[in-house]
Structure formats: C-alpha cells, structure tokens
Amino acid sequence: MRITISKENYLKAIAEAESEEETVKPVTLTRWLHVSAPAVTMAIRRLKRDHLIRQGTDGQVTLTPAGREIANRLLNRHHLIERMLTEIFGLEWYKVHEEAEQLEHAVSADFEGKLLEKLGAGRACPHGNQVGLDSPQERRRRGLKPLDEGRVRERLAVVSVFERDRRLLEDLDRAGIRPGVRIEVQHTDPEIDLQAEGRPVRLERSVAGKIWVRAL
Prior knowledge:
Structural class: alpha+beta
CATH superfamily of the largest domain: Winged helix-like DNA-binding domain superfamily/Winged helix DNA-binding domain
Number of domains: 2
Order of helices and strands: HHHEEHHHHEEHEEEHE
C-alpha cells in the first residue's frame, strides 16, 4: 500500500478534527482541507479501500488503527518540526505551522529520531499545544479554559492558541497575545477587553474562544 501525501493529509485532518471534538463527515474534510466535495469523495473511497478509515451509515468517518498510526506519526513529526523551526532556526511562531505542513511529509524516521534527541520530548509547540492530539477536554483537565470564559478582573496567562489559522496568529502577534503572555480581563460584553502586559487589547468573542488560558 502506497501512502501518498494526499492520504497523509486526509488522515491527519480526520485526527485533528476529532481532537477539536468534531464529528467528522465529508463536509468536515471539505472545510478542513479546503478541497471540493468530489475530491473528498474520491479520497474517502481510496482510504476505505486501503483500510485506513471506516465510514458509518450516517456518513461519519473514523480512523482504523492503521490510519490512526499514520496520523499520529505525522502529528508527532509536525510538532517536532515546529519546535525545530523556532528553537533552532528562530522562525517567528506564527509562521511555523505552514512550514511544518510542508516539511512533515519529507522527514525520515532517522531525522525524526535526531530531532527528538536534540529537542527532547514533552515540551509544547510554539503555539502552546501538546504533542499529538490535545482536545478541549484534555485542556480542561489540565486546568485550562478558553479566554471567552474569563471573568472581569481575572488575571490569566495565555497557554495555547489555535494554530491552523495564519491570519489569526498574525493578528494575535501584533496585539501582543502569544503563549506565556499575562493578561487581565477588563470587560467581557460584548467583546473581550484585556490588558496584555500593560497594553490594551480588544478581541471578538469568537477569537477569544480560540485562546486557552490558565488562572494566575
């Protein structure tokens, strides 16, 4: 069985959507991968043929053990490459996701092993996310919550942000919102007004919901 870049992308997208607690159907993959419905239909047919996914009568798509193994391997490589780009090469944190999306398909197992030796395991990526799948449920278990749940006068530390939106990351960087920054909530209705290390910032609630924070 030949695992193409396209197959890897679909398998990883399924795993990522599941980690955001989405029910994965063909329309989900159309949105996540920015491809047409016919392209998704053809890809699902190939992945089912290769026993990498299952599809229920309601259209829901799930990974088989073989499919999940491939997706997890790609997610781990993506995480290591993001860390390499920032920790070794100093690339801006809001750029590394797109670069890693390209490089993850070219990394060999040997190079992945060298990266793991160099960088070590267990550290978050530049966006503050844990290696592999970091679901909202897992984040809450670690004591995190979305910023849109912050209370007035609450002091918080930014822990992680949604990384699959380059424009969002650039906007947050310009506003001074990134992992590690300490903030204080000023107002919460209808938008979120903050002080971010002494700097006033206003965020739409939909944006604040993509930022995970920890109470100080």
